[in-house]
Hints:
- The protein is 59% helix and 8% strand.
- It is mostly helical.
- The chain has a 3-stranded antiparallel β-sheet with strand order 1-3-2.
- A hairpin with a 7-residue loop joins strand 2 (60-66) and strand 3.
- Helix 1 (7-18) crosses helix 2 (23-32) and helix 6 (117-145) runs antiparallel to helix 7.
- The chain is elongated and about 65 Å long.
- It starts with 6 loop residues before the first helix and ends in a 10-residue tail after the last helix.
- The model has no long low-confidence stretch (mean pLDDT 92).
Amino acid sequence: MSTRRSPLAMALLSLVCEAPMHAYQMQRMIKERHKDDVVNVAQRNSVYQTIDRLLRDGLIAVRETSREENRPERTVYEPTDAGRDTLRQWMRTMLSVRAREFPEFPAALAFMPVLPPDEVRAALDERLISLEARLSELDRDLTEGAKFLPRLFLVETEYQRAVLKAELDYVRGLADDLRASLIDWDFRL
Length: 189
């Protein structure tokens, strides 16, 4: 059986390969390590659903279940040999093959004529503010992280910064072209 690969499944499997742990600990570690910038763990339910899928597909196994006084029952998971092999294969694929993804922003650009030009300019100006703020955050994270982490643990932040900088440059240029009326807007929906 081939388990569907996802960033969350990869992250959870990676964590249990590091050390056996329960679901709450996995979610907490992803957040503490700031990996929630690249893996969506905002909904605890998605973590549990992914764990159930990994368990059902034989990539992880229950190591133990325990209950401390006044605490919910906790199930600790560990990887299986198939889980370790699958994780390595997922990593090779995720690093080497460009995935076909469908982010919202390019889709919005594709249908931009739905709005009048002044609304598009205003929306892009708002986006520029948030992009600049996020770029500053990433720069801070990289500077602070470099004080105590090897670069190996910062490469996803470097990548995010490079992609964000490219988007910022593109949006700034597009907004400038709209302000200068360099994009024809005769089409109306």
